[in-house]
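ARCHIVE CARD
Drawer: 12
Card no.: 0347
Subject: one protein chain, sequence and derived structure
Cross-reference: see card 0346
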Amino acid sequence: MTANNPHYMPQRETQLIISAQQEAADQLGKHIYFSDSLNSGGRGPELAIIPAGHFEMGAAPREHGRQPEETPQHYVNISQPFAIGRYTVTADEFERFRAATHWHLRPELIWSKGKKPVINIRVSDAKLYLDWLSDETGKTYRLPTEAEWEYAARAGSTTPFCFGEDVSCREVHFDSLSPYRDINKKKWFLPRCLPMPTSIEVGSKPANLWGLHEVHGNIWEFTDSPWTNSHINANRDGTSDKHYHTPWITTKGGSWFDGANKARSAARMRRHFDEMDTNLGFRVLRELGQKLDQA
């Protein structure tokens, strides 16, 4: 894997990164952004096509805030394009599933509404939603692996955030009392950066180069990858190690509850498979064939 490879994302200019997405969409006969129709009427979550390519996963040796579990950096080959949610699944989208399947909503828990991310669900509940969505669309929906999630979130970037070396509350919804670099802390104490102890509506923050919103902050996102204490034995093809048995799963993205350091692209957190939280949700991945139908 060298910088001469036409799909080696870290060495590409911004326009080439965007062009790679357009080329993948053209080859698949689809728009960059699309959604599938549901058998019961309406549309599924809005998706963005992510091109195949290589990237370097994990935290760089001198990355500010780097943690041992984010190492070592290693190259990953994503051999096939896929589509991923432009936003995390919203309360409204999850409500369609709940109403159709009579999934039990526990009234004693805090629930979000409207376009805020669905919260207080287990990973098993997310998979039930994905199974329902697959049945409704006739397509294969699942959770992204950790590598697929990080590849899509980075969108060709090699910096701690897809926006660059640092972020502010303009780009990311995190605990504004814990900025990424303490040296800049004074600038955070502005009205627009006061702590907001809840999630915000999806699409409120800028998208990365591939059109994904809130890949940094707002809520942690489930992946389909079991938790590991490092990347030492990570698969290099972007898949999860299904032979590794643990009650812990890997989540990505950070949240409104956590400081900006935990919202870095390389950051990861372990969560119990049965865990629910007000800062924990998910984003869908939709598998793609060689040529998409025109649904």
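Annotation on reverse: The chain has one domain: 9-287. The chain is about 15% helix and 15% strand.
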